[in-house]
UniProtKB/TrEMBL annotation:
<dbReference type="InterPro" id="IPR001647">
    <property type="entry name" value="HTH_TetR"/>
</dbReference>
<dbReference type="InterPro" id="IPR023851">
    <property type="entry name" value="Tscrpt_reg_TetR-type"/>
</dbReference>
<protein>
    <submittedName>
        <fullName>Transcriptional regulator, TetR family</fullName>
    </submittedName>
</protein>
<dbReference type="Pfam" id="PF17754">
    <property type="entry name" value="TetR_C_14"/>
</dbReference>
<dbReference type="Pfam" id="PF00440">
    <property type="entry name" value="TetR_N"/>
</dbReference>
<feature type="domain" description="HTH tetR-type">
    <location>
        <begin position="26"/>
        <end position="86"/>
    </location>
</feature>
<feature type="DNA-binding region" description="H-T-H motif">
    <location>
        <begin position="49"/>
        <end position="68"/>
    </location>
</feature>
<dbReference type="InterPro" id="IPR023772">
    <property type="entry name" value="DNA-bd_HTH_TetR-type_CS"/>
</dbReference>
<keyword id="KW-0804">Transcription</keyword>
<dbReference type="InterPro" id="IPR050109">
    <property type="entry name" value="HTH-type_TetR-like_transc_reg"/>
</dbReference>
<dbReference type="GO" id="GO:0003700">
    <property type="term" value="F:DNA-binding transcription factor activity"/>
</dbReference>
<dbReference type="GO" id="GO:0000976">
    <property type="term" value="F:transcription cis-regulatory region binding"/>
</dbReference>
<keyword id="KW-0805">Transcription regulation</keyword>
<dbReference type="InterPro" id="IPR009057">
    <property type="entry name" value="Homeodomain-like_sf"/>
</dbReference>
<keyword id="KW-0238">DNA-binding</keyword>
<dbReference type="InterPro" id="IPR041347">
    <property type="entry name" value="MftR_C"/>
</dbReference>
């Protein structure tokens, strides 16, 4: 990721709104995300202002904040929908399937992206996992995932979501997923799904190669 710091500008404070009347909100949101990711990747997250993102997306500063509370939120996109989808997948799991296997399967499915989505996903995850300014923010986001998983495990096991085991399952499965993403980012020829399945297979088996 190139982090070439260049001076910012504020000309976009008075940017003319170029969004066509009637353009779906999701179209504007996607355009802002794309502009933000491109600028952050090119110059570094902290070197880009919110005004510059708005200018690049062809919208006003005010419109930017209609979609995102902060510029960090533009990196994450609609993460709430991602978390909600994970929760739906967990709720739909087969009760006969072991709890840990159910969580792992849900993680794999929620991260099953179309080929056309992978370049943007790679750009997004590189920023999230390597930009120092985003690492602290990521802990808040990942905590949302942990709560969903812990509640599911608690519901299946009869424990409280705050008990050790539900929290441990949430933390370890998320760590496995994050490690899989890091492996995928390090090898552009690899498949994300392959890394996810391998990481969860090791986790559910208790790292058999280390037990000898």
């Amino acid at each position: 990721m190139g982090i070439g710091a260049r001076g910012g500008h504020n000309a976009c404070v008075t940017a003319i709104e170029t969004t066509a009347p009637g353009l779906p909100a999701e179209g504007t949101r996607a355009r802002v995300e794309r502009a933000a990711l491109d600028l952050f990747t090119l110059r570094g997250f902290e070197q880009v202002t919110t005004d510059e993102v708005a200018d690049a997306a062809g919208i006003s500063r005010r419109t930017f904040f209609r979609y995102f509370a902060t510029k960090a939120d533009a990196v994450w996109g609609d993460f709430a929908a991602h978390v909600a989808r994970l929760e739906e997948l967990l709720a739909a799991t087969d009760p006969a399937q072991p709890v840990l296997a159910s969580v792992c399967a849900a993680y794999v499915e929620v991260n099953d992206y179309a080929v056309a989505e992978l370049p943007l996903l790679r750009e997004r995850m590189l920023l999230i996992l390597t930009e120092p300014a985003l690492l602290a923010h990521s802990q808040l986001r990942f905590a949302e995932v942990d709560r969903v998983v812990a509640r599911y495990v608690a519901g299946r096991s009869g424990a409280a979501a705050t008990d050790l085991v539900p929290r441990l399952v949430a933390a370890t499965t998320r760590a496995a997923a994050t490690t899989a993403f890091e492996a995928w980012l390090a090898d552009q020829r690899s498949a994300l799904g392959t890394h996810l399945r391998q990481a969860f297979a090791e986790l559910t088996a208790g790292f058999p190669g280390l037990l000898r």
